[in-house]
Amino acid sequence: MDIVRKTLDRISVERIKLELLGTAYGRSTTFIGRLDPRTLLLWYLFFAIVPWFIHNTTVLFGMFVFIVSMTALARVSYVILIILTLGLVGQVGWMFLFSMLFGGSLESLLPLLTLTLKLSVISLASIAVFSSMDPEKLSDGLSAFGVPEAFSFSLSYGYRILPTLLSEFHQILLSYRLRGRSPERPGVLYFRNIIYYLRILVLSFYPLMLNTAKRSRTTVEALEIRGFTYGMNHPEVKKLRLSYLKIRALDVYFIVFSIAYISWLFWFGESLPNLLY
User: Fold this and answer.
1) pLDDT digits (tens, 9 = 90+) for 176-189
2) Do the Cβ atoms of 96 and 108 come closer than 8 Å?
3) Angle at the Cα of 28 (from 241 to 141), degrees rounded to 5?
4) How far does the signal peptide extend, from start to end residue (predicted)?
5) 209-216 — which CB contacts under 8 Å span 24+ positions?
6) What is the DSSP string of 46-60?
7) Which of 97, 163, 176, 188 could form a disulfide with 20 if both were Cys (CB 3.0 to 4.6 A apart)?
8) Which residues of 18-131 form beta strands (DSSP E)?
């Protein structure tokens, strides 16, 4: 019980906000964070697309082991990993439940495990890559591949402002709790408390949207003052902004090792296609 209580004490809005800040602003000191964003994006595209076309469980499991090691090197937040695990378990659970309700058997669990391996590889690759890049590197990497400047900036801006919105939502929620009155009795199964908190959540949504609109207007004005529109329409400005991007020896070693491992994995998977089941 003490372990459960300590774990629940650590799960708070403030804790989640700090974890999101660490994720949104990247971890440039890790091995993955030192790589060029173009290298990371190409590496991610492979592991985001190719697993969908693979049905060899040996290859999928080998990819999963490789991605798990990359996720460990990226030092991904345990809160993000817990959310991912709960999502995967919940998805497979309800799909298996529906298959059993419509006349399925335990054999239907095997295809679901294959699907879970695919989703795990893709999800962990996403977390490892995007938690290792700050919004600027992400935007510059997309721009280097020819993605429109407005889209790449919007993506990085939304990536950066998410922790700020969560912090602001937390402050609005606390202000409603200070000015309001909680139920004196929780009711059956804490029914009154649940209704009270749901009402506060709905009321906090409107001030949050208003503050977000004000913040967006201030951001647009600041960008125009600094010449954002001019920079989008002039290639020399883009070339100057992306001049720091360089493919170094570390990027080459990483790509060569990834290609060598995947090549060996496909060869090994042809020899033992059903290593797991």
Assistant:
1) 878 777 777 777 77
2) yes
3) 35
4) none
5) 211/168, 212/165, 215/161, 215/164
6) HHHHGGGG---HHHH
7) 163
8) none
Does pLDDT of 208 surpass 80? yes
Which residues have CB under 8 Å from 259's CB, separation 6+? none
Of 214, 206, 213, the C-alpha closest to 176 is 206
Are 137 and 33 within 8 A, CB to CB?
A: no
From CA 44, how far away is CA 71, in angstroms rounded?
A: 12
Question: What is the amino acid identity at position 33?
Answer: G
* Stated pTM of the model: 0.76
Q: Which two tokens stand for residue 186?
A: 């929780």
3-state secondary structure 246-272: CCCHHHHHHHHHHHHHHHHHHHHHHHC
